[in-house]
Amino acid sequence: MKKDDLILTEEQMRNRAAEGYFVRDLEKDRVYCPTGEILRKKSTRKNGDIRYANKMACKQCESKSKCTRSVWKEVDFPDKVWEMRNVNWLKAEDRAE
């Protein structure tokens, strides 16, 4: 999927994230987590994945036990991917597919 193929409003992205997804805003290069926090680009990995994080928000988050199992509370997105299911979140909410 190309960057121009998908245009969602901020509200649409936040609503989708609230359903248990990490949603990437391709235009602003940031990610919305299920709690509505914004994760910012941290780095690009050798394999091309883009790493996003917001350590302050994750540190204070009351839902972190439902979120990523990553020790550093980071999310990696392949270059062309705009959303990823948060499997841990969906399981905690009894909505895993």
Total DSSP helices:
3
Unreliable runs, pLDDT <50, ≥5 residues?
Answer: none
Strand order of the largest sheet: 5-4-3-2-1-6
What's the SSE pattern?
A: HEEEEHEEH
Q: Rg from C-alpha positions?
A: 13 Å
User: Which overall shape is indicated by the principal axes computed on the Cα atoms?
Assistant: globular
Q: Report the end-to-end length measured between terminal Cα atoms.
A: 23 Å
Q: Which terms summarize this structure?
A:
97 residues, alpha+beta, six-stranded antiparallel β-sheet
Please, could you describe this protein's structure?
This protein is of the alpha+beta class and 97 residues long. 22% of the residues lie in helices and 27% in strands. The protein is built from 3 helices and 6 strands. The chain has helices spanning 10-18, 55-60, 87-92; strands at 21-25, 30-32, 38-44, 50-53, 74-77, 83-85. Strands 5-4-3-2-1-6 form a 6-stranded antiparallel β-sheet. A hairpin with a 5-residue loop joins strand 3 (38-44) and strand 4. The longest helix is centred in the N-terminal third of the chain and has 9 residues, at 10-18. The mean pLDDT is 87.
